Amino acid sequence: MSALSLAVRDANTMLRRNLLHARRYPSLTLNLLLTPIVLLLLFVYVFGDVMSAGMGGGGGADRSAYIAYVVPGILMMTIGGTVVGTAVSVSNDMTEGIIARFRTMAIHRGSVLIGHVVGSVLQCVASVVLVGAVAVAIGFRSADATALEWLAAFGLLALVALALTWIAVGMGMVSPNAEGASNNALPLVVLPLISSAFVPVEAMPGWFQPIAEYQPFTPAIETLRGLLLGTEIGYNGWLAVAWCLTLSALGYTWSKSTFNRDPK
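and the corresponding structure tokens:
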């Protein structure tokens, strides 16, 4: 077998290993997935009327308009929450001795990381589909989006999942334990809360607007919102792609250098 064939075979083995772990221990994934669903129901059914009235300028909007606004942000938050489980899983591998055993085996070194990354992206996609189904059940509709915009939206979600997964893998590798990995990955859950996920940036206090605007989640959410609702996305699309590529490169370099470092 060629070196490429061996690398693909080993990566596929590690992917099956990670998916098997996710199936056998679903509690972490379910707990992380519960947060965006609860927030979706909370903001739609508890705060929906008030938020939609405020955004509509004197009651001009209804709850369905706010559902359309908030769902893209919730989907991005779902990805951020799901990759926290990846950081914990990587940290467990690093601290429980299995990586040391893998180092002594005749397997492709990068296959361990590839298995975690691909497995995490697949879990993110599955989580987004589940949360999206809940959103549709409570009234979200995307009638104005074309098939090409739907395809672009799916590609954006996958790209964001890939970028955040590489960052989460790096966080997991440098964490001393699973609790530390969960704490280190907390910004991936907090950042969507201080973005344009729930209210427009211009509706925030002036001193807070730069915090919400100059971060990776806001352009990604605005791009996804425009694609799903069939509205203009402006320069947010390029910003979202640039953020994703930058984070992917940083996370990959960080994870690879940490993994290849000789254990002390």
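(Above: one complete record from the training split.) The mean pLDDT is 86.
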